[in-house]
Amino acid sequence: MRWIAVPVLCSLACTGGQTGDESLLREPFVPPGTGASGNEVCPTRESGQILPSIDEASPDGFAAREVLAFAEGVHTTTLHFLTSLEGRASGAGAGDDELEIRPSAEDTSLTIELGYEGGEVRYFPPDTRPCQGRLQIDVRLSLRSADGALDETWQATLEARGRHEARVHVAARPAVRGETPPLPRSPAVSELHGALEVEAPERGNTYLAWLDAYLLWSAFGVQGSLSAWIRYGNGSAFLVEIATFGAHCEDRYGFAIDEAQALPNGLRPADALDRLSGLSATQALWPDGEADSLALSFAYAEDSACARLDDSVPGRAVGSLWFSGTLSLVSANGRLDADWPVSITATVASEADQPTLQLGLARDSGPRPDNLESDWGIRGVAAEAFDSLTLELDATLEVAEDVAGLRGEIVLIGSELPEIVPTDRPLSSADLRTTELLRLQLGGGAP
Which residues pair with 84 in a beta bridge? Predict the structure, then answer.
């Protein structure tokens, strides 16, 4: 083995000094344990070793050949362009206008080809154990879209933190622009050979200065995204995601999977749904001390199962599931009669264990003061005087003698705006006056 020292690939999220808002870039392969700032819980050293072949196991116990087994080859998927800037750009890119994408913003077929041609294999150890290191494999990657927008090839680096996922970050720049890389540590870079052009026409003179492509492979397929640096004529720029492709979960990091597919730890959506099928009732205690019983049922949202793999720490059960549906709650005393959109996370400690199911309200859902009873089924709570409401569900499925119930709580908080709204800074949560309106304790199985 030969030891080397090279810079470890770094995403946009862990660099500073760019123009625009780096947080806008949604990397489909952000490693578990990486915070919003991009500082990893399990960083690796910048000096590593060259492995003699793809069959040589790294110190973490897996070889490059295992990674290439699911990543190498030709994958065909759909490239979906995103044109609206509303809610997806801030800073220099804030607004609700549309991008103009040429040759077309319509969905198109995308062919992804990754090949290993005898390139170098490198291993970078972690700074601390029990974290795993990074395995890097020099590969050839091409992206070609049926509409001609992309016709790109890179000598790239395939990187894996474990044997179940691998990722690539590459970039391309229009040759006529002569742009310099926006990253201090650039990924594999090529000139843009396809016909892709991106502008924000309502903003005057703008153009595509740089294109970043992020790809993630696993046994469940491949997924990724394209993000563009849009440059103004005055030199400033903003970053925005312009396309996604592959087996994405809706609004989630992870891979869309079928109910029967299993994670490496054996966890399947079908197993989690089977446990939920026994959901029937749970004990409840209202804030005024009244004991109650809630009748419960769950309806699964078809095709919402999402798998997230995590083998960055040896010994951890690899992966978790997320899916969504509707939770019905009807109290015996009539104070709650609701159908709520929920998200459920399923995990296992080991392959021999039953999955643990954690329930919460679906993202971006919740009541308003004027629809608390009509749409959210909570009765007898005076909420009209508040400017906004926050509803929280934090519950775990419990199964005893084949009867499934929930243990946790439901909390409702009312918020009021300050009498004088600050004009010199954005309004923050600290400015709000909050009141707890309800805390309903959920006690497990049927009474």
Answer: 98
Tokens encoding 270: 């079908």
Which of 246, 275, 299 corresponds to the end of one domain? 246
Nearest by Cα to 386 from 326, 434, 316: 434
Tell me if the pTM is above 0.85.
no
Contact 137, 116 (CB under 8 A): yes
Q: List the beta bridge partners of residue 241.
A: 227
Same domain, 207 and 298: no
- 342-400 pLDDT per residue, tens: 999 998 876 667 788 999 999 888 999 999 999 999 999 999 999 999 999 999 998 76
Please list the residues that pair with 440 across neighbouring strands: 410
Specify which residues 66 forms β-bridges with.
none
- Same domain for 79 and 152, yes or no, is yes
* Buried/exposed 141-168: b ≥16 CB within 10 Å, e otherwise: bbbbbebebbebebebbbbbbbbbbbbb
Mark whether 196 and 224 lie in a shared domain.
Answer: yes
Q: Which residues contact 323 (CB under 8 A, 6 or more apart)?
A: 269, 272, 273, 300, 301, 304, 305, 306, 343, 344, 346
**Each residue of 5-49: pLDDT tens digit?**
433 333 333 333 333 333 333 333 333 333 323 345 577 777 789
Q: Are 24 and 241 in contact (CB under 8 A)?
A: yes
Query: How many domains does the chain contain in total?
Result: 2
Do 115 and 214 reside in the same domain of the chain? yes
Radius of gyration for the chain, computed over Cα atoms and rounded to the nearest angstrom: 25
Residue 45, both tokens: 């050293």
pLDDT in tens, 177-190: 656 655 545 578 88
> Tokens in use for 351?
């392959």
Q: How many CB atoms lie within 10 A of CB 209?
A: 21
Strand 433-444 to 281-285 pairing:
antiparallel
DSSP letter string over 245-257?
A: EESEETTEEEEE-
Last residue of a domain, one of 225, 246, 267: 246
Contact 385, 434 (CB under 8 A): no
Identify the bridge partners of residue 438 per DSSP, sorted by sequence position: 412
Neighbours of 1 (CB within 10 A): 10
d(CA 217, CA 431): 44
Q: For residue 346, which of 272, 250, 407, 258 has the smallest C-alpha distance?
A: 272
**Distance separating alpha carbons of residues 113 and 80, to the nearest angstrom:** 18
